[in-house]
Amino acid sequence: MRTTTGWRAAGSTVLRRTSLDRRDLRPDDIALRVDYCGVCHSDLHAMQTRGPRAKELLVPGHEFTGVVTEVGQEVTTFSIGDRVAVGNIVDSCGACAMCEAGQENFCHSYPTLTYGAADRQDGAMTLGGFAREYVVRDAFAYPLPPGLDPAAAAPLMCAGITVWEPLCRLGVGPGCRVAVAGLGGLGHLAVKLAAALGAATTVISRTRDKLEDARNLGAHDLIASTDTRRMAAARDTFDVVIDTISASHDLAPYLKLVAMDGTLSLLGHLGPITVDVVDLLIGRKKLSSAGSGGRPATAEMLRFCADNGIAADIEVLPSSRVNMALDRLRRGDVRYRFVLDMSDLD
Q: How many folded domains does the chain comprise?
């Protein structure tokens, strides 16, 4: 075993600095020094849903960038010193129909997540990227293209790929009309990517306070969801509506915005929903969802972002301020993603 330092959950709201064990490298593993790790709503959720007597060690963090420090004997795609990125999936069965299609995120036996999952070989619990070192299969690490800032690129590995795959699968491009509901960590990247793909992009937000932000991100307009007149005028307008709102909400107003044969893609809220079938029936509208992305799409997204100068809008904090970051994220006080600088763990 090898030892590093990281931040573990101590209860449902607090992380504590601690020593962590990482496995010795297998033949197809790489070890990397984690330089930057994004802070995701999923991290909050994982902490808050732990029972008070939870015994398993929880170390959050599943969108990070760093530098390769060691490679296993069978690794040929990476060398020591390479810049790499890792997302929220670190293994899969590799044999089911989904894995063979390059959709490891939908692995029939469930993908191995970056933290809080049982390793497929030894059963040990995976510990996340809120740490100075991570050990991962080389197949689930990605070269970080030149030109991408490693701090601003970290959130691409979760928030970025989560919106990228549905945008591509739904055919977003020139001539397409896209609305993005919610302008947070997911939403701001959805706007940037949709605009870069050539779509006429509009933000749907509760008020017009973020109009300037929306335009700076590449949107043409912003519609306040509380403005009944404008929402009514936008009925049947958008080919694709990307819904990134994380809280439970009524889908009816957003389905009404979808054009005939268009799609509402629900990415933010992953809990139960209620849908009136009539809202789908009128206009042959479709309701879809997506989660993370497969290996080919993740690599494609990183190349696209590098070619088009796209990265997250971030606030970088030393990892010692992770509890403050989580508290502010809980209150929605971030534009648009916290990223932890892990160098203070040396």
A: 2
CA proximity to 289, closest of 170, 191, 128: 170
> Would 301 be classed as within a structural domain?
no
Residue 296 lies in a domain: no
What domain range includes position 216? Answer: 160-289
Task: Please give the full DSSP string across 157-194, using - where no structure is assigned.
Answer: GTHHHHHHHHHHHTT--TT-EEEEE--SHHHHHHHHHH
Per the listing, tokens 């049982």 go with: 118
Summarize pLDDT for 85-122 with one digit per residue, the tens: 999 999 999 999 999 999 999 999 999 999 999 999 99
pTM: 0.96
User: For 192-230, how does the pLDDT look when each residue is reduced to its tens digit (9 = 90+)?
Assistant: 999 999 999 999 999 999 999 999 999 999 999 999 999
How far apart CA 84 and CA 53 sit, in angstroms, is 36
User: In angstroms, how far is the first alpha carbon of the chain from the final one?
Assistant: 19
The rounded distance, in Å, linking the Cα atoms of 86 and 74 is 19
Residues 146, 60, single domain; the answer is yes
CATH number at residue 281: 3.40.50.720
| Residue 151, domain CATH | 3.90.180.10
